[in-house]
Amino acid sequence: MQKLFSKISVQKALLFISLFLVGIILFELKYFVSGIMGAVTLYILTRRFYLNLTEKKKWNSNLTITLILFMIVISFAVPLWILIEILIPKINELINDHDAIIENYNTVRKFLENNEFLKRFDLQFSDQRILQLVNKVISYIPSTLNWVGQTFGNIFVALFILYFMLRQSREMEERLKELLPLSRGSKKYLIRHTAALIRSNAYGVPILGFSQGVIAMVGYYIFGVENAIFWGLLTGAASIVPVLGTMLIYMPVCIYQIATGDVQGGLLLALYCLVLVGGIDNVLRFTLLKKMADIHPLITVFGVVLGLQLFGAMGLVFGPVLLSLPGILYRVFEMERSLKDLQEHGGQDAENHIS
User: Are residues 134 and 209 in the same domain?
Assistant: First the structure.
């Protein structure tokens, strides 16, 4: 009976029950999952700053948390203002002007129909098709506005949770470490690498989007694209789209430039975007972001696809983390097995060797 209800068995049972209950709670609070994930991400990004001010410089904790929350609100306010005040109204203006759409489309259509290479594929171009495409884009506007509203709600939830996470940071971390049924070295490895993955993706998404958007904006301005700022912002926003990314924006812009008679400018712009806009992605991934966490590009691509389906916007951060977890957990398994082998052979300092 004692063997049946050994201490280890009870601990495992309680851990399983706890995880099961957490799963039920998260399922019932699924509308707040993005906010919870956002709070975890923000905590990882601001933890060191908070502890440095409160523990080393002896700042008041409430004052420090208020400062951090204010900085976060400002950092969110700028892109949301750009989205609400610039991008959405401009997109509405463009798609509601059907005559201008048809006129621009006819220009591109004539160019494509006269292209000797494309004639081999017998492609059909009609005004009806482009209007169907426009109407399809319009149908996404309500969901986009709904997404903006959800984003505001998730930000509020994230900031609310973040306040308590920072307020009780040390106690929370110690309790988390106690709950993990792993050796000290394995706990340290799991927490450190998971935090590094979250940090890398949280910094990587805005850094890549901003860099590609600015470089594209400069190119559009140099080669005479109308509304260069607007198209640059759209290009930066498209950087989150898996696989195609910024090509979804700059390729149609280049084709339109060529179709309107600026063949040299359009070709040079295409070369500029392929080399610089596309190249900055690789440069940043293999330099700055690789120092934070060494994530394979394929994990990032497929992780974003998976994450967006599961978690919405927060999937940009947690999708690659989710795909990377099997490798991290396998490494933890290897560490635990090595520790067990050392202990079986009488190694008194086995855990110190692993950690």
Answer: no
pLDDT at 43: 93
For the entire predicted model, the pTM comes to: 0.75
From 140, 156, 179, the end of a domain falls on 179
In one-letter notation, the amino acid at residue 354 is: I
- DSSP state letters, 288-316: HHHHH----HHHHHHHHHHHHHHHGGGHH
CB distance 68 to 166 below 8 Å: yes
Q: Is 216 exposed, middle or buried (0-12, 13-18, 19+ CB in 10 A)?
A: buried
Q: 131 and 261 share a domain?
A: no
What is the pLDDT confidence band of residue 163, given thresholds at 50, 70 and 90? very high
* Three-class secondary structure of residue 223 per DSSP: coil
> Tens digits of per-residue pLDDT, 21-47?
878 887 777 777 888 888 999 999 999
Alpha helix (H) residue ranges in the chain:
7-28, 33-51, 61-82, 88-96, 98-113, 116-119, 127-139, 141-167, 169-179, 184-222, 228-238, 247-259, 263-272, 278-285, 288-292, 297-311, 315-344, 350-354
Residue 298 lies in a domain: yes
Cα end-to-end span (Å), the chain: 35
Reading the block at residue 161, the tokens are 């949770």
Residue 52 covered by a domain: yes
In angstroms, the Cα distances linking 127 to 112, 201, 285 are 14, 42, 41
Q: Flag the least confident range among 104-113, 283-292, 336-345.
A: 104-113
Q: Is residue 196 part of a domain?
A: yes
Domain stops at, among 160, 179, 198:
179
Residue 141 is part of which domain span? 26-179
